[in-house]
Hints:
Helix content is 41%, strand content 22%. The chain is an alpha/beta fold. Strand 1 (7-9) and strand 2 (12-15) form a beta hairpin. The chain is globular. Residues 1-12 have low confidence and may be disordered.
Amino acid sequence: MLPGAHRAAGQQGPAWPDRPIRLLVGFAPGGTADIIARLLAGAMQSELGQPVVIENRSGAAGMIALQEAARAAPDGRVFAYANVGQVVLTPLLQSVGLDPMRDLAPVAHAVNIPFFIGVSSKAGVTTLRDFVAAAKARPGQFNYGSSGVGQMTHVAVELLRAKTGIDVTHVPYRSGAAAVQEMAAGRIELVMEAYSVLRGPEEAGQAKILAVAADSRSAQAPNVPTAAEMGVPDFAVSGWQGFFAPAGTPAAIQERFAAAVRATLDSAAVREQFGRNGFEPGIGGRAEFAAFVAAEQRRWSEVVRAANISAL
């Protein structure tokens, strides 16, 4: 335990945490973020000595939860569990009532969910190199689906476009599942999604997973090459998630919370659950996570600007 981490501020005040911690999740129960947050929150109780209580605050693309967290007193009683869409992408495209980079403090990197590139079997390609060549030979004739304008499933393909020079047309859907269904049916050619979402269509012979957008192959799909192996270097994309505190929360509290997250991620039970679902534990400490979030903000700002993406 870190020196002074028991104190909410300086040498005064009760030991922290002295009561249950509220964890705000910006999506309804049952979604990926909610499932992971509940898994980690339950395991963190033994590390912190207090329950971490999930409060779902869905709405406005997950921003309701972040707005409430930003308004909360910075005393360690409220944290938010958020993903790259909430923290980086949505604020780039619309006014959200806060600046996550200013009003929230990154505390702990929880998970990476690597993206995989999937194509319809009707596209007639078996490798990413084949797809790039086919798309260049038929500019504007291939379509890709996403879970909506400005979502990671959209901007990730725009980054792929920029790196390969392909001309493919965006078709937004209400959800990633809907886009995958359309791809499996052959009505669009390409999507980028988590392996767990693409595995079913591939096993049914409706799709082919061409590559993982990561620096190394996935343990869950070791036969799937990385994008770099297929000629697209420096193309790592994930639906990362992590914990955030109201700006101004004492550093000692943030550090102890981050230490509890790291210990939880190292537990055999959590690693088994993550491995089963294709999730990768977050790495690094609080400073590394803050640097990572800032780098992601710069990276995706450039992609959004270059692709001229705007909210509908």
